[in-house]
Specification:
Layout: E1 5-13, E2 28-32, E3 38-43, E4 54-64, E5 70-73, E6 100-101, E7 112-113, E8 123-129, E9 135-138, E10 174-177, E11 189-209, E12 222-228, E13 240-242, E14 252-259, E15 264-273, E16 278-290, H1 294-317
Antiparallel strand pairs: 1-4, 1-8, 2-3, 2-5, 6-7, 9-11, 10-16, 11-14, 11-15, 11-16, 12-13, 12-15
Bound molecules: calcium ion (4 copies).
């Protein structure tokens, strides 16, 4: 795993391609980390309908950070087995290392390694790329003017995973006040630090539209998004405008997701614009693929050199 992901489904290949999970019992499937701890597991019901030749079972979305993992599934020596010699193409930032197996009567981590690297291939998984936020700062208007009850009390309310309720008095909301008439200032401007450079895919913003306070809390009209590799005004890209917020009348917790494809950076700046008195934000998250640091690139290049020199040596022996 060369980028953090969230796994949502675990799957087993339909080895004989007949669209039926031909196992005598629901096979257990799981992921182990490098300390041999079982991170997540489930059983795939034999009634499962395959998707593109894979029987998937949903799991509680499970975060996997950078590292090496083992995925294993039970097979019962019946029709649904595993592939001996596979052509393996992995998603970006996921690398296949080796095939493993176990001969056991219970569900255990496969630990036996064969010299043939692409054998014992029979599992799959679905996931989303995550770009976790390390920290953020408010660097525009709004934050100083709000009453204490709508403050970002611990400085992590936008990234703590807590989605507030529909009432604006829920302490999980962060409120940003800018009294009308609107002068076009940020309400608020927030800069998120992802800790590393990511090739961004998406941002998801949780906000409040409420009639509870006489229509003074509304969806933002717009967010201007820019990225930078350094926290420096001059380093930020030209902001791109997104206006897909739902400001229809109602009292509702709403989410907007914006496609950030093509934006690459460590710092992501969200500059919200709102003509009404209040913007209420509950959560902001990002999806993206981590860009390897130069050190990692060097070791990849070195690995390639070692392989090339091996190949050359082998050839010279012939
Ligand atoms: Ca089958
Ligand atoms: Ca939150
Ligand atoms: Ca709060
Ligand atoms: Ca405003």
């Amino acid at each position: 795993m060369q980028s953090p992901i969230e796994v949502t489904d675990l799957g087993k290949f339909d080895y004989d391609g007949d669209d039926v999970l031909d196992d005598t019992a629901a096979p257990q499937i799981g992921i182990w980390d490098s300390s041999h701890a079982l991170v997540v597991s489930t059983a795939i019901p034999t009634s499962t309908t395959p998707e593109n030749g894979v029987f998937y079972a949903p799991i509680t979305p499970t975060f996997l950070n950078l590292g090496t993992y083992v995925i294993g599934v039970q097979t019962f020596y019946d029709k649904e087995r595993f592939s001996w010699d596979s052509n393996i193409t992995t998603a970006r930032a996921i690398q296949w290392n080796e095939g493993r197996f176990n001969l056991a009567t219970t569900f255990t981590e496969p630990v036996n390694i064969r010299s043939q690297p692409t054998c014992y291939f029979g599992t799959n998984f679905k996931f989303d790329y995550l770009a976790p936020v390390e920290s953020y700062v408010y660097d525009g208007s709004g934050q100083g003017a709000q009453p204490s009850s709508f403050l970002d009390t611990d400085g992590i309310e936008l990234i703590d995973g807590e989605i507030p309720g529909t009432s604006y008095t829920d302490p999980d909301w962060v409120g940003f006040r800018d009294d009308p008439p609107d002068d076009g200032t940020s309400q608020p401007q927030v800069t998120f630090d992802l800790g590393r450079t990511y090739d961004l895919l998406k941002t998801t913003i949780t906000y409040l539209q409420s009639e509870e306070a006489s229509g003074t809390i509304t969806a933002p009209e717009e967010v201007l998004i820019s990225v930078s590799d350094i926290y420096d005004e001059a380093g930020f890209s030209t902001p791109v405008s997104f206006t897909g917020f739902d400001g229809t009348v109602g009292t509702e917790v709403r989410q907007a997701a914006f496609d950030l494809t093509g934006m690459i950076g460590r710092f992501v700046r969200l500059d919200f614009r709102n003509t009404s008195q209040w913007t209420f934000l509950g959560e902001v998250s990002f999806n993206g693929i981590m860009i390897p640091e130069p050190a990692t690139l060097w070791s990849a290049v070195l690995g390639l050199l070692v392989l090339l020199s091996c190949a050359r040596r082998r050839r010279s022996r012939e």
